[in-house]
Design goal:
This protein is an alpha+beta fold and 163 residues long. It has helices at residues 14-20, 70-92, 117-132, and strands at residues 38-41, 44-50, 98-109, 139-145, 154-162. The chain contains 3 helices and 5 strands.
Length: 163
């Protein structure tokens, strides 16, 4: 199919993709300590770590590999991705300005013998690819920690190239 064919669907926006996924962006969660949610430097947007916080402010807590399953933690990483997108929207005013998700750092509050950190952080990575398409494909690290702030299950930060 070529661009000139009348049956070609126009490219969808990140907002269209969010709606198709049934996701309504929450307000960007506020910082939990003495820092800001984002810093823009040139054409890069650095997002501070976000966690799995629900719209009502409830944060998912626990240790993956103990009282939190891989499936639950994947869902928590996806929720964290939604919160990161909310910060992007707040910072940029338009998600259409996202040129590319450059890098994610995903941290998992896990038991010492847990080893499936990449599967957990896929919750956020998969969401970013669903919402931003090819621009959502990114470099990434997924690491385990003995604890995270307020005992949250995951924390993820991002670097985003913008227009």
């Amino acid at each position: 199919m070529t661009l000139s064919e009348p049956n070609r669907r126009p490219e969808t926006t990140p907002y269209d993709r969010l709606a198709a996924l049934g996701i309504t962006l929450p307000a960007a969660p506020p910082p939990v300590a003495n820092f800001v949610t984002h810093v823009q430097e040139g054409k890069l947007l650095f997002l501070s770590g976000q966690g799995p916080t629900e719209i009502d402010g409830t944060a998912h807590q626990g240790k993956v590999g103990d009282d939190i399953s891989i499936e639950q933690a994947y869902a928590h990483a996806r929720l964290t991705g939604i919160n990161l997108i909310a910060v992007m929207h707040d910072a940029l005013g338009d998600l259409g300005r996202v040129r590319r998700i450059v890098k994610l750092l995903g941290m998992v509050n896990a038991t010492a013998d847990f080893g499936d950190h990449p599967t957990v952080i896929n919750g956020c990575s998969d969401l970013f690819i669903e919402v931003f398409g090819d621009a959502g494909i990114h470099a990434r690290s997924a690491v385990g920690h003995g604890s995270l702030p307020n005992r949250i299950t995951v924390e993820i930060e991002a670097i985003v190239a913008i227009d």
